[in-house]
Amino acid sequence: MLQGKMKEEYRSRVYTDRPDYADFDSPAKFTAIQSIIAKRLKEHPNAICSYSGGSDSDIMIDIIERTRKAFNLPAVKYVFFNTGLEMKATRDHVKRISEKYGVEIQECRPKINIVQASRKYGIPFVSKIMSGGLSDWQKKGIPLSIADEYDQAENKAVKRQELRERYPKCESVINFLCCCNAAGEPRPNIQLVINSSKYMRDFIGEYPPDFEISAKCCDYCKKQVAHNIQKNYEMIITGERRDEGGMRSVPRKDNTALCFTETASGQFRLRPLYYVSDKDKAWYKERYGIRYSDAYEVYGLTRTGCCGCPISYKAVDDLEKIKPFEPNVVKAAWNIFGKSYTYRKKYNEYKKGRMEKEKQRTNDAIPGQMSIKDFML
Fold it and tell me: Does 29 share its domain with 165?
């Protein structure tokens, strides 16, 4: 036996529940994915697939249509959700893909478009989780000082209960600001708390936002529209990949580590690309001659989605790439999300400054560490 006991490393179900094919090389992995698609379409032929016009969707629709033809499977319903702020490159690509595979891709538009939703509810900032937390904080009006109270409390469980009584119906906001759970236990390293973005609590204290923050535009422009059309189908197919990170890589009730799950509503959800890596995508693109939209091939984007969405850290840089080709959509994005772009730039500068100061303090505290001052006369 080994001397001592090795420290156990915690790994989420994204890793512990991985199927064998997740570690296959690209050719074998896509063969396995075809088998999965064939099996699930035979079991659940009443299926609907969300097609975004992005690179993941291009790989997904190609492998679905190849599988359908190989196994003589029934047609899949394809839908494209137009938020009202889409690049022409994306709209044109959706039409081209429809013609390429001889399938109908139905365009669905929201009742409340992205301009209306943003004006009514607010605009995203940093991430969906951060937007939701900051939105609740703005609405509830809870002072940031409760976080200092919690941090300084010797008995954090008692302090957490006191805060609950002082601010009823504010459970999630208290947890968000104090970086804890409902029992008062510190949870500083999870995605659901404010300091999951470094120094964010200090930043908004020093520089409060002068605009309403919310990710409701996503709910109204995509989620609700998707729910309304998907509810009549037995199986929902989406192109989520674990390698995208964020909430798509976190197991949830209907988004476990598996690519096929049953939802709470009794529907089934198939994510055929869940374990497909960027390297796998590149192999498939070359092997089958896939051409992405001009947003990738001409503009030089590496990822598309809601055009100009501030949740992307590259939003402003991407808009600069789009601008020579589609100046009007760039102008529209700045009109809708401009305050979030500017605020994020300020936050990035604040974070960089704080990190540099901390690094300098650490260097100054190291005994024997030479400083530039040692070389000055």
Answer: no
